[in-house]
């Protein structure tokens, strides 16, 4: 199967939010205060279709098969803009779910921050995650970032191995949205 990577667009909203949810189901359930997959996808779809927020199509790249199917997604944004990009998420949480929680910062800034990486379950293990990571590293270099960072769940050794193989280094342990994570980074 041939895979290409392109910038996401607003018309990809029929599949991308569902893929994004795979990468952060527990976090989104916490944001909407219930374990409801349909509601979680609606939440992400609303944000995906809006500009200037963490989960906007503006911050996403998609992996596309030779049959034009979207099979993976990676979202990344300037870590220095976390507060600005997070505000629409917090606003929606409060307005629609009466949730005033403010999660801990995912990034300390000074990096292109990878928020989500997800590959369709039907084709995981075929290198698509690596292709998406390579695209983000290439994009980061083009945009003159000096570092790419992300969080990895301490209880996800497979993800830890993937990022380590790609050259990411384990940084400090942090708490985020009730979970324990390692901040990993790739110096450019």
What can you tell me about this protein's structure?
There is one protein chain. The chain has 188 residues and is an alpha+beta fold. The protein is built from 5 helices and 7 strands. The protein has helices spanning 16-32, 37-49, 82-97, 128-142, 157-165, and strands spanning 3-7, 60-65, 70-78, 112-119, 147-153, 169-176, 179-187. It has a 7-stranded mixed sheet, sandwiched between helices. α1 (16-32) crosses α2. It is globular, with a radius of gyration of 15 Å. The mean pLDDT is 95.
Sum this structure up briefly:
With 188 residues, the protein is of the alpha+beta class.
The coarse silhouette is globular
Unreliable segments of 5+ consecutive residues: none
Largest beta sheet: what is the strand line-up? Answer: 1-2-3-4-5-7-6
Q: Structural class, from helix and strand content? A: alpha+beta
What sequence of helices (H) and strands (E) makes up the elements? EHHEEHEHEHEE
Q: Main β-sheet: number of strands, strand sense, barrel status?
A: 7 strands, mixed
Strand element count: 7
Radius of gyration: 15 Å
Distance between the first and last residues' Cα: 30 Å
Look at the structure and give the mean pLDDT.
95
Helix content: 25-40%
Note the total helix count: 5
Sheet-strand content, in percent, reads 25-35%
């Amino acid at each position: 199967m041939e895979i290409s990577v392109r910038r996401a667009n607003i018309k990809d909203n029929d599949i991308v939010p569902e893929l994004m949810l795979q990468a952060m189901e527990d976090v989104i359930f916490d944001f909407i205060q219930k374990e409801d997959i349909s509601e979680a996808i609606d939440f992400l779809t609303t944000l995906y279709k809006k500009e200037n927020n963490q989960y906007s199509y503006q911050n996403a790249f998609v992996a596309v098969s030779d049959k034009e199917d979207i099979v993976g997604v990676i979202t990344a944004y300037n870590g220095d803009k976390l507060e600005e990009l997070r505000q629409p998420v917090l606003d929606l949480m409060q307005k629609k779910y009466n949730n005033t929680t403010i999660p801990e910062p995912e990034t300390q800034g000074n990096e292109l921050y990878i928020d989500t990486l997800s590959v369709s379950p039907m084709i995981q293990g075929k290198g698509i995650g690596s292709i998406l990571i390579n695209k983000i590293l290439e994009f980061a270099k083009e945009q003159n970032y000096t570092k790419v960072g992300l969080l990895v769940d301490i209880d996800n050794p497979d993800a830890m191995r993937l990022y380590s193989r790609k050259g990411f280094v384990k940084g400090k342990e942090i708490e985020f949205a009730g979970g324990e994570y390692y901040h990993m980074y790739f110096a450019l």
